[in-house]
Structure formats: C-alpha cells, structure tokens
Write a structure and sequence with these properties.
Elements (H helix, E strand, L loop, with lengths): L5 H66 L1 E4 L2 E5 L5 E5 L2 E4 L6 E4 L2 E4 L7 E4 L2 E5 L4 E4 L3 E5 L5 E4 L2 E4 L4 E4 L3 E5 L2 E5 L1 E5 L4 E5 L8 E3 L7
Length: 220
C-alpha cells in the first residue's frame, strides 16, 4: 500500500492553480488586445455617425425651410376689402404680403388701412409692417404707425395699432403722440371708436393726460 505524499499533492495543486491563472491571464490579454483594436474603430464609427447626423439635419432643415417658403403665397400690392358689423367699409393695402401656410395670416410690408371708405371722412393708417389675421378679424401694424383723420384734423403717431375689423375699433397701449387743432398731446394708450369720431386717451407716469375727443362730423 502506497502512502500519499502530502508534498507531492501540494505541488500538483499548485501546478493546477498556476495553469488556471495562466489561462485566465491569456484570456484577459486576448480581450485587452481585441479592445485595443476595436476601440479606434468604434471611435471612428461614432464620430462618423455624429458627423453624418449633423449633415443630415442641416440638409433636412434646409429642405424643410425651402418647402415651407415654397408653400408661402407672396402678393405684390395686395388689397383686402371688407365691412365691419355695422356695414362700414374698410380697406387693407400693402406694398407686399406673404401668407403663412401654417397660420393663414398675412405678413404685410408697408401696410395702409382706410376705414369707412363709403363716408366723407376717412381714417387712414400707415406703418412699416403688420400682420393681417383674416380669420380672427384683426390687423396689427407697427412700428412707426401714423394715423390721420380728415374730419378731426388730428394726426397720431404710435409704435403699434391693433384694428378690430369686426367693430372698427383701433387700440394701442405702447404710447401715442398727437397733434391737431386742439394742440399736442402724449398718452400711454388710446382707443379710436366709431371710425374716428371718438378718440379716447389714457395716461400714466409722465403721460398724465386722460380724456376723450369728439370731433364734429364734417359733411354728414
């Protein structure tokens, strides 16, 4: 009967452990080498993908912008006519207009508005630009708005004017300067009613004026 040699058993066990560790080290080394080869390729792929996406979005944005512009309706010297709820006429003209296909609104260049064309008195409004919301029945013009009325003799200048084409009322809350037969005035806001027959002013701060002008009708 042979008695096992403990020293020999420990030696074999150590050899087995060394072999296993060597195998794990070789496997890890192969993975490291693989990652070293794949990492530069992965970086190039990601960089190329990011560049491709950027170029793609730039091209698509240009295509979408061109498509949107191609759907816009451009008009030279347009003229829109209508009536308010009381049957009083109005006219909206401009040097040029562009209809936004998304909203249906018209961007106006050099707008000119005339209210109550059928009467002897005409309230005329001019500005550098404006927006005509035909469905909402409003016209917003500005900057550099000039409002003149043939009956009262008053001329108003203001940064913005909003015209409700359903009622014929004109409003503004960005300040107003005026001059006419009664002198000059400065106010914070204004309302023009009845196609210019009644002008209301409100003031605050340095513009303390508050009152109503009722010009006498001419030729009615």
């Amino acid at each position: 009967m042979t008695v096992p040699d403990p020293a020999e058993d420990r030696k074999r066990a150590d050899e087995v452990r060394l072999a296993e560790q060597a195998g794990r080290w070789r496997s890890r080394s192969r993975r490291v080498q693989l990652y070293r080869r794949l990492l530069p390729i992965l970086i190039v792929v990601l960089a190329g993908g990011a560049l491709t996406w950027t170029v793609f979005r730039t091209v698509m944005s240009g295509v979408e912008r061109d498509a949107s512009q191609s759907r816009e309706i451009r008009l030279d010297n347009p003229m829109f006519r209508g009536q308010d709820a009381q049957g009083r006429s109005f006219m909206i003209g401009a040097e040029g207009a562009v209809r936004d296909p998304a909203t249906g609104r018209f961007r106006l260049n050099g707008p000119l508005l005339r209210l109550n064309l059928g009467g002897t008195r005409v309230t005329e409004m001019r500005a550098d630009a404006g927006i005509y919301n035909e469905a909402g029945r409003t016209v917003t013009i500005g900057p550099n708005v000039r409002i003149s009325d043939g009956g009262s003799g008053f001329v108003l200048t203001t940064p913005e004017a909003v015209v409700d084409t359903a009622t014929g009322i004109v409003t503004g809350n960005k300040g107003v300067e005026g001059r006419g037969p009664l002198g000059t005035l400065s106010a914070s806001s204004y309302v023009i009613r009845d196609q210019g027959e009644r002008v209301e002013f409100r003031g605050s701060g340095d513009n303390k004026v508050q009152g109503t002008i009722n010009p006498a009708p001419s030729g009615r």
